Amino acid sequence: MVVESIVFGPIPSRRLGLSLGVNNVYNKYCSYSCVYCQAGRTTRLIIDRRSYYDPHKLVEVVVRGVEEKKPDVVSFVPNGEPTLDKNLGLEAKLIKERINVPLAIFTNASLIYREDVVEDLLLFDIVSVKIDTVNEKTWRKLNRPHPKLSLERILEGIIDFSKRYRGKLLTETMLVKNINISIEEYEGIADYLSNIRFDKAYIQAPIRPPAEKFVTIPDKDDFLIAYNIFTEKLGENRVEILNYPEQPLFKFSENLVEEVLKTINVHPIRLDYLKYIADKKDVDYEEILDKLLKTGKTMIVEYNGKKFIVPRRII
């Protein structure tokens, strides 16, 4: 992958507004292989940090993207685990020296027990950490972590990080039917979160095509039960349900085919959203879709009653 292709969007974030995405690790290099991952199964399950792109070239591409597209936020949200990038801290420092929009990172927190990872994360204005469960058996079934990882160590690391971090700390809990759906699961997560200094806890649904076909969205009642337990223990103003899609307000350039190809590696796009984008740009939707499919890099999948364009490797 050339360095220019790592920046995508801006895409509409339900949490942060228009987000310019940074895909700072190679495709599907991750420490987890979550069953619900919208970027597909992990192909390189690793926990060792390494270099991926020249950090100075990466920064130039990000700065140019900010200048051209005026996002609300820049987010390190790759189709892998961003903290696997050992240049992460340097990249964050250099970017923050040159832009005046918040810098965010979305991490599964699997390496947060490492001091070098913590030091890197402390540089970000917004940090979002994944906490899908506090149960070891559920964690291994849902997140399918690298075998050398320890859930206890990760959970302790998040607590320690929250005590040192002075930015905006978010937590994400993805609910998947028949896996982490129970009062015991919700109470365990909420009790754990009560030990963390955080700003907002998001309860999410797998609304885009997942890595595994057995993944389905829980019933509405499950979200309400989880929400009630979370708010009782954490406070209503600190909990939000995200079980709805974002608006189709993607801020793409005129080269729509290239923009879509870069974006779907991380963020599958609904076909009705693609049509909306094409219509807004006064270009032919069918022609754009045909070009995308003829690249051989994409395919159409149906999930939860909606059709999406996704990378061919997702299945």
From TrEMBL:
UniProt keyword Cell membrane present: no
Superkingdom of the source species: Archaea
Keywords: 4Fe-4S, Iron, Iron-sulfur, Metal-binding, S-adenosyl-L-methionine
Domain Radical SAM core, chain residue ranges per copy: 10-245
A GO term, aspect molecular function: catalytic activity
Coiled coil region boundaries: none
Segment forming the signal sequence: none
UniProt xrefs under Pfam families: Radical_SAM
Gene3D superfamilies linked: Aldolase class I
Cofactor: [4Fe-4S] cluster
InterPro entries: Aldolase_TIM, GTPase_Obg, rSAM, rSAM_sf
PANTHER family: FEMO COFACTOR BIOSYNTHESIS PROTEIN NIFB-RELATED (PTHR43787), UPF0026 PROTEIN SLR1464 (PTHR43787:SF11)
UniProt name for this protein: Radical SAM domain protein
Protein source organism: Staphylothermus marinus (strain ATCC 43588 / DSM 3639 / JCM 9404 / F1)
